[in-house]
Design brief:
The structure holds 2 protein chains of 2 kinds. Chain A is α/β, with parallel strands linked by helices. Chain A has 8 helices and 7 strands. By secondary structure, chain B is an alpha+beta fold. Chain B has one domain: Phosphatase 2c, domain 1 (4-Layer Sandwich), CATH 3.60.40.10. Helix content of chain B is about 45%, strand content about 25%. Chain B is built from 11 helices and 10 strands. In chain B, a hairpin with a 2-residue loop joins strand 4 and strand 5. Chain B is globular, with a radius of gyration of 18 Å. The chains are: A alpha/beta, B alpha+beta. At the A-B interface, helix 5 of A face helix 9 and helix 10 of B.
């Protein structure tokens, strides 16, 4: 009983989940910017993990085009997560992405990736450039919304070069809050936004496991908004 | 013969912030029954009296269970009996909260550190200040009666196999979302049931501060429940006491920790022998 491992006590897991549209419309600058942004975030995550003694950060990446699939079958630690650039292909099957995400957000005993007991609310970051081509996306999102871990999650959506209200509304349905849908028009902005969200949320989530989820999410969103404001003042667009 | 044990310890996150221990545990024994309970007052800022809330929940369980007669458990339709017990616990808890609010009004000073939103929530529903979960169990004659609301849990042990009792199957209670005695719909989330005590060698009641660091049932059973059971069966209560203290103050997740156990001594000897031979 001298230390955690001897006791069977394990560190909490903080799941950071990227949901990435790699459909044909993302080709060129958009997907290139996403690939660079993820790589950039991963370069700083070891430092974040080192500062975070309370939780192990697990990183997941779900890509979706004609179908959705996980880059890794299970969440990887910061040191094990290696990013291989995504290539553009096919259509935008958001329904399948929501299905795969729903299964991930179940308890491990039920076949998902979330702990059976306790756990830290995950961070979800959805990145897309337009409307889904799967017409039944709403039914799949409604099923996803019933999952407790989805409700608890800190949810962001990055609207890459999106100008249509319809597409923005879909992303707002996902996050449940228009303030957590961020429009991005340059590669540099995308890189900085992903970095701010992933880093700030990972720090905040992993160090405050005993506060209420809703309070913690609101506080984290405020921190992210403040950091984003600071970045804007520094001039990034 | 029935043996029982209960222990609560403050978690290190509360030690750091100077918050009181919001868990409470209790045990009661007389010639006819043994009752144990563990309750976990909520930790968020708005629950300013949740340490009292968890104490009141333990008291409500003890008082409600003491009023149950063994004849009642098989004399009437089961659902009717269970609903009555559920309502009795809820009413007793609410009465204790109301009494406390009458005697100790929530003053300006008590809420001045809260956000406007939380102050508004307390004005609308002062009982929210006392928000808590509850888990309780009683051995009465051949019956094991259990009640549960929110996180934490009750686990039965039979021949070294650990199974959850009254497991919360809702997908709503993840991360630190939990059902609460202070919710308007608390009645619908309280689970009560009774079992034949012969189906269990012992019963463990734990708040989530104990359970969560083990992340899943197989690990929890192997790394905590069965070793603790073996220690208790051998009369090494001090070891279990020290374990709970360490779990709260050092090795756990920083949350308050509470454990209560009831076990049949004759069954436990067998369990110990099995454990020793593994």
């Amino acid at each position: 009983m001298a230390d955690r491992e001897e006791n069977g006590i394990v560190r909490q897991e903080l799941n950071l989940i990227f949901i990435i549209d790699n459909s044909g419309s993302m080709s060129g600058e958009k997907l290139g910017a996403v690939n660079n942004a993820i790589r950039d975030v991963m370069s700083i995550m070891p430092e974040i993990q080192e500062d975070t003694s309370e939780a192990i950060i697990k990183i997941h990446a779900l890509k979706f085009s004609d179908h959705a699939s996980w880059v890794y079958n299970e969440g990887k630690t910061v040191s094990d997560f290696k990013w291989a650039d995504l290539a553009p292909e096919g259509e935008t099957n958001l329904s399948d992405a929501f299905d795969k995400l729903e299964k991930c957000l179940m308890k491990q005993a039920d076949g998902g990736q979330m702990p059976d007991f306790g756990g830290v609310a995950p961070i979800l970051i959805l990145m897309t450039d337009g409307l889904p081509t799967s017409p039944d996306w709403e039914a799949h999102l409604n099923a996803l919304k019933k999952r407790g871990w989805f409700k608890a999650a800190l949810r962001y959506a990055l609207a890459i070069f999106i100008k249509s209200d319809e597409a923005m509304n879909i992303l707002t349905s996902f996050t449940g809050n228009p303030e957590t849908v961020l429009q991005v028009y340059t590669a540099e902005a995308l890189r900085k936004i992903i970095r701010v969200i992933a880093v700030t949320a990972s720090k905040a989530k992993s160090s405050s496991t005993n506060t209420a989820v809703t309070d913690n999410n609101q506080a984290t969103q405020q921190q992210i908004a403040q950091k984003l404001d600071e970045e804007v003042q520094d001039g990034w667009n | 013969m029935i043996e029982f044990f209960n222990k609560t310890n403050v978690g290190f996150s509360h030690l750091k912030t100077g918050k009181p221990c919001q868990d409470f545990s209790v045990s009661y024994h007389d010639e006819t029954r043994t009752i144990v309970a563990v309750c976990d007052g909520h930790g968020s800022d708005v629950y300013i009296r949740s340490d009292r809330g968890s104490k009141f929940a333990c008291q409500a369980i003890i008082d409600a269970f003491k009023s149950v007669r063994s004849l009642v458990l098989y004399g009437k339709p089961k659902e009717q009996v269970l609903n009555k017990i559920k309502m009795d616990i809820l009413c007793r808890w609410n009465a204790l909260v109301e009494q406390d609010l009458e005697q100790n009004h929530i003053g300006k000073k008590e809420i001045e550190m809260l956000s406007e939103r939380d102050q508004f929530r307390l004005k609308n529903n002062p009982a929210k200040a006392y928000g808590t979960t509850l888990n309780g169990a009683m051995i009465l004659g051949k019956y094991l009666l259990c009640v549960s609301l929110g996180d934490g849990g009750i686990f039965g042990v039979k021949k070294g196999v650990v199974t959850p009792i009254l497991e919360e199957t809702s997908d709503e209670t993840v991360a630190n979302y939990t059902y609460s005695m202070c919710s308007e719909d608390a009645y619908y989330h309280i689970h009560v049931d009774f079992y034949n005590i012969r189906d269990y060698d012992g019963v463990f009641l734990c708040t989530d501060g104990i359970i969560n660091p083990y992340q899943n049932l197989p690990n929890f059973a192997k790394s905590f429940i069965l070793p603790v059971y073996t220690e208790l069966a051998n009369g090494k209560r001090e070891n279990v006491n020290d374990w709970i203290v360490r779990l709260g103050e050092k090795t756990g997740y920083g949350d308050d920790v509470s454990l209560a156990v009831m076990f049949r001594t004759e069954a436990n000897r067998r369990l110990y022998q099995e454990a020793r031979y593994q």
